[in-house]
Predict the 3D structure of the following.
Amino acid sequence: MVVVDGIVMGPAHCAIENCTQDLVNARQGVFCAMHEVLHKNLCRVNGCNKNLHQQKWQSHLTRFGRQSLLGVQRILRRTQEERLPWLPQINRQVQAHDIMSSREEKKKKDYFSPSRFYCVETICAPCGVVLAWAKFDKSESVDQIFEFLEKVFPTEDVRPSYVCIDKACVLLKSAATNGKWMEWRHTTQFVVDSYHYINHRVTDYICHKWCNPAPLNGSAPNLVVVEHDVNGVPHYKHAFNTQACEQLNAWIGGFQTMLNRMTLSNFNWTMHTLLFLHTQRVIKKQHMREQVLEEDNNEEIGIDIERDD
């Protein structure tokens, strides 16, 4: 099993549609090196070849400039998001990417400000080890998710038995419609993580039927295990941690304000480093847990031997 999820964050990139290159001027620029040359002396309003929109540009500066009242409010709001120790704590969790947007993409009216990547998508093992990550532009769409999965798992022999994602039912419906399900049905089943399944299963029959992360009808025995409590009473338990990516996102969220201000290249390096350190920490904890279990087993064996003597 692999767990897939995204966190809404990302660096700025070129303002031109479908161009995700780094900005040539990270402080005040809006274009990459190529589009900076092509649009340097043109009006920043989309489709205009003349400089007839100075009033609109001044309105933009008034609204988003640092010296304006709104600019000061933006700085104060950004300071609050940094979670500094002397500021009051605000418990706020934004999960906009959990809801699929049905609105059509609107064409940009102007190029006064750069575009920004929508989210960072990660693929984790249930233990928490990060297997892959990618930046999604504009939205966390089904097509981008499938493209990401196909890039990480290009052939059937390396595809996981289960892909756990909060949009599993949406992926399943889309795959059945566009034909991708014929490529994945022999190797992989899409399931919803346990947190989001609580809301999905009430209204969505397909999600309840095919994307259940812990079915008790025997259709997926690998997803459910039986354990006993301290009194010896058996109970069902999830065999895998389906919240691995959510836990990772909660940790990465602490660096969100800093990462969003970085250039594209610095963002890539820092994000990769953070995920590498997180993976190393998870592996270290696993080794420590195995050593503790091994010591406990040795102690039990030693006690049994003494009793036999």
Observations:
- Residues 37 and 291 are 60 Å apart (CA to CA).
- The longest strand covers residues 115-124.
- The longest helix spans residues 264-308.
- The beta strands are 2-7, 12-13, 115-124, 130-137, 162-165, 189-191, 224-228, 234-238.
